[in-house]
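A reminder from the course coordinator: this example appears on the midterm review sheet, so study it carefully.

Given structure:
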């Protein structure tokens, strides 16, 4: 178990995930009441694109690299790009923010950010990053197990991001299903966003069927394929399953997904899809 997100920071999957994360947090912070954002698999919070890991794969070039210098980025991606630019104030793309840093940028003074990360080095980097941010709480522990202890949050409003490394391949879906069942029992009204990789849709179908049967009343799914899902050996795309999606977020994502496809496609067969698994 040695997944390091540094190899993948800023790739097409991160752009997709983080653009949606910001849209969710923007929607939730539109109301005055304080909220809690819990990131169960937080990573190290920020990445240097000239570190050896990022240079080795160069994955960010087909992700954030396609957008950063675009003189006319698609309007639905401007909010995401502004967040990335805020981390690179001199105008050169060197730093890629992880989900904790993007969330911290978006949350207000009275919101709370709870971050779980099992790898010691990554958790230490997170602690250092948020040393002077009293809103942030870093737990060096299993994010799934933490749900039992940390839900419901005192604020009773907010978002849980579940973004595991999928080292267990399809077995990760089983862990997510159990985590969502537990989370629903403890906090049925929370917003839950689950990122997942797509190698083939066949592998995803049981997960979708499971969530289509409950327990959440409303479940929205956004997916992006940068290539056709005809090779189970590569990452062809990814999805975000959103349980209890904020009001009108489907309209925001309906505008965002074609923009993501047009900028991130790696094949003419690239596609996007937004659909309700349950409710609407
Ligand atoms: C995909 S990365 C997270 C990326 C991050 N959410 C972002 O968007 O910037 C997954 C992270 O989960 C950590 N991890 C793996 N298993 C975990 C677990 N059971 N609980 C918490 N963190 C875990 C890994 O060390 C890795 O840093």
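Designed residues:
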């Amino acid at each position: 178990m040695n997944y390091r997100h540094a190899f993948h920071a800023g790739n097409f999957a991160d752009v997709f995930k983080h653009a949606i994360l910001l849209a969710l947090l923007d929607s939730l912070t539109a109301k005055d009441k304080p909220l809690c954002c819990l990131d169960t698999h937080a990573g190290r919070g920020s990445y240097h694109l000239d570190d050896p890991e990022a240079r080795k794969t160069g994955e960010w070039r087909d992700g954030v690299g396609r957008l950063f210098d675009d003189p006319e980025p698609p309007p639905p991606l401007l909010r995401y790009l502004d967040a990335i630019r805020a981390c690179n104030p001199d105008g050169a793309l060197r730093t890629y923010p992880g989900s904790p840093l993007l969330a911290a940028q978006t949350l207000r003074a009275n919101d709370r950010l709870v971050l779980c990360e099992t790898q010691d080095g990554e958790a230490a980097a997170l602690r250092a990053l948020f040393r002077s941010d009293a809103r942030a709480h870093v737990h060096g522990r299993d994010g799934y197990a933490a749900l039992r202890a940390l839900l419901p949050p005192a604020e009773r409003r907010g978002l849980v991001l579940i973004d595991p490394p999928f080292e267990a391949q399809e077995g990760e879906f089983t862990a997510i299903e159990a985590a969502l069942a537990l989370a629903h029992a403890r906090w049925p009204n929370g917003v839950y966003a689950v990122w997942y990789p797509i190698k083939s849709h066949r592998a995803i179908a049981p997960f979708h069927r499971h969530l289509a049967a409950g327990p959440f009343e409303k479940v929205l799914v956004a997916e992006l394929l940068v290539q056709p899902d005809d090779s189970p050996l590569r990452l062809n795309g990814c999805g975000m399953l959103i349980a209890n999606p904020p009001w009108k977020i489907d309209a925001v994502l309906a505008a965002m997904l074609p923009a993501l496809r047009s900028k991130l496609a790696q094949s003419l067969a690239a596609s996007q899809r937004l659909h309700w698994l349950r409710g609407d």
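Residues 3, 5, 17, 39-43, 98-99, 116-119, 122, 142-144, 163-165 surround S-adenosylmethionine (CB under 6 Å). The radius of gyration is 17 Å.
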